[in-house]
Design goal:
Order of helices and strands: EEEEEEEE
Shape: globular
Strand content: over 45%
Helix content: under 10%
CATH superfamily: Jelly Rolls
Protein name: Cupin
InterPro entries: Cupin_2, RmlC-like_jellyroll, RmlC_Cupin_sf
Oligomer: single chain
CATH topology: Jelly Rolls
CATH architecture: Sandwich
Distance between the termini: 32 Å
Radius of gyration: 14 Å
Number of helices: 0
Structural class: mainly beta
Number of domains: 1
Number of strands: 8
Length: about 110
Amino acid sequence: MSDEGTVPETEGVSQELLGEVDLGPEIEGMAGRRLRMRMVTIEPGGVFGPVHGHKGRPGIVYVLQGTITDHRDGAARDYGPGVGWPEDRNTTHWLENRGTVPAVEISVDIVTET
């Protein structure tokens, strides 16, 4: 996917919730927020889109296998196994797997109760 102007919807992505903690009872001022950990798998050719932001939903990603391309600020950066990228209030991005094997990440973030 070389055209940064066209980002498809999510396809070829599966997510498994590994755990979560209700932060309200744990930290004053965090009522309605959860700490969430997911395993996300992006199949070869898969896209985690569309472009999305993380304002109010900070997190961090650890890549277990494969390579994930993170698109932000007009640039694409590849992340292989190991610590990936932070997702803070300034993050607006989308992800893809340009490789030939499934890319697997562990994503930990803080989300608002729905």
